[in-house]
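Duplicate of #3305? Posting structure anyway:
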């Protein structure tokens, strides 16, 4: 036996063998154990991936399903709160005869074709249904009198009567100019005046310094026709419209709006009270409460305003006659 072998301590050898056996046992035990479970972090990460994929899949919408699905109708907006219209002070309890109130409340909005002029006290308009070649209405804007009877106002208030006479003169002058414009080429008197004026213009060409428009030159002209005298101003004894108004109308009664006896007689009988008649006698039967003759005036005979021929109830004959009179009248 080798000496080195003899020198080995049996206890040391045995201890080494035991250590080797222990290492082998640990190796065998490690191989026999089941695979270790994943850690908490790995498990959480895997779960997040699956959730993300699931969410992505759910987020994808089917185009056909989206198209065919009924979309909920949006809720309608709440109804707007209705605002109460501002009442027109010139209307009287929604009276259907208060058609003139719209001109009084906002004259600036009236179309220029209907409006002649207005100020703080009056509105002057063309009558919507003119009964003559020119026919205007003067509307006082004073609310305190707009619903009163015209005969009572004009008969009891001198200041109002004076103010109406003043505005009536302005309106009459305006309508007279319109009559002159319309009949300038048909009126003999107007044609004579126009010819004389043309001669003055020719003289101005041959005589330097001569002014055909000067007062001296105008005095040389014939007067022409007095169209203002062809216009009458007044009120109806029983007005058809609620708001106080005054008629300014030419005398010819040439209008397709004159359609019956009432239309004609309302301007050609005592039913039409001329402004020059005021103040009326206190016993005048046309004043409300004094008499009841106004209906009889409208139903009475129709008399030609020019020749005074009585046509009684023959309105068609009167209309034909008025056309003849008009052709003569406009040529004066």
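Output from current build:
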């Amino acid at each position: 036996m080798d000496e080195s072998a003899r020198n080995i301590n049996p206890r040391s050898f045995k201890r080494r063998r035991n250590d080797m056996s222990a290492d082998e046992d640990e190796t065998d035990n490690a191989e026999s154990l089941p695979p270790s479970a994943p850690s908490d972090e790995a498990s959480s990460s895997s779960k997040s991936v699956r959730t993300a994929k699931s969410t992505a899949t759910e987020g994808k919408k089917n185009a056909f399903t989206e198209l065919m699905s009924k979309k909920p109708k949006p809720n309608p907006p709440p109804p707007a709160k209705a605002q109460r219209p501002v009442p027109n002070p010139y209307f009287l309890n929604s009276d259907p005869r208060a058609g003139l109130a719209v001109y009084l409340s906002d004259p600036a909005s009236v179309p220029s074709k209907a409006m002649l002029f207005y100020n703080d006290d009056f509105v002057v308009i063309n009558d919507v249904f003119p009964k003559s070649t020119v026919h205007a209405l003067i509307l006082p804007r004073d609310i305190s009198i707009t619903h009163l009877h015209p005969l009572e106002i004009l008969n009891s208030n001198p200041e109002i009567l004076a103010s109406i006479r003043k505005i009536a003169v302005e309106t009459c002058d305006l309508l007279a100019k319109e009559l002159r414009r319309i009949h300038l080429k048909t009126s003999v008197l107007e044609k004579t005046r126009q010819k004389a004026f043309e001669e003055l213009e020719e003289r101005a060409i041959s005589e330097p310094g001569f002014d055909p428009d000067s007062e001296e030159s105008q005095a040389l002209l014939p007067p022409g026709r007095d169209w203002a005298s062809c216009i009458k101003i007044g009120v109806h004894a029983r007005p058809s419209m609620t708001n106080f108004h005054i008629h300014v109308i030419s005398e010819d009664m040439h209008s397709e709006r004159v359609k019956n006896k009432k239309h004609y007689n309302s301007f050609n009988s005592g039913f039409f009270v001329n402004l020059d008649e005021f103040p009326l006698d206190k016993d005048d039967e046309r004043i409300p409460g004094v008499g009841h003759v106004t209906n009889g005036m409208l139903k009475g005979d129709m008399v030609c305003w020019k020749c005074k021929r009585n046509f009684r109830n023959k309105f068609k004959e009167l209309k034909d006659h008025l056309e003849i009179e008009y052709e003569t009248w406009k040529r004066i």
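Confirmed duplicate; merging threads. Residues 101-185+225-329 form a domain with the HIT family, subunit A fold (CATH 3.30.428.10). Confidence is low (pLDDT under 50) at residues 1-10, 12-38, 40-45.
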